[in-house]
Give the backbone structure.
Amino acid sequence: MRPKTPVASPEIEALIGLLAKVPGLGPRSARRAALQLLKKRETLMKPLADALSVAAEAVKTCSTCGNLDTRDPCGLCTAPGRDDGLICVVADVQDIWALERAGAFRGRYHVLGGLLSALDGIGPDDLRIAGLIARAGQEGVREVILALSATVDGQTTAHVVTERLAPLGVHTTRLAHGVPVGGELELLDDGTLFAALQSRRPL
Ligand code: ZN
């Protein structure tokens, strides 16, 4: 077999190699992205390089909630007018972004930094659970909302977190599982339909 010779210059191959590590981009998409960046050097590549370097320097993890921001404590922890009595627990920062886009929650957040996973070897000590327990035990906290995925890992994590919160006596809730807004019943899978029936509530 002939040794694989790089097609482009080492600099371009290095760029492609790094882009290919970005989630959602494989080697093919990375080549396409690299080419577009090189073609749009002034309008895309240089502004992107600047944004990357600013973010790499300035963004840090909030020591209170685990969110990413240029400030510590972050903007969501310090924002006036948010309810300190409600803590919404999420797996990762992207979940905060989703909830904030929806504009449905006006309390504080706590980012666990992942989900428990026997398969990936992620145990309770790998997540920000101790920090959550400390926050939930503070005076004035009325409710902890577990906004975790309806997957095996998400539900295992919710179970473990609930157990740890139990001694504090704080009201703990989780997001409802069921019929999506705009969803048709006949298109739902059995598990979702079952969960929706279990989570029914009076009108
Ligand atoms: Zn924060």
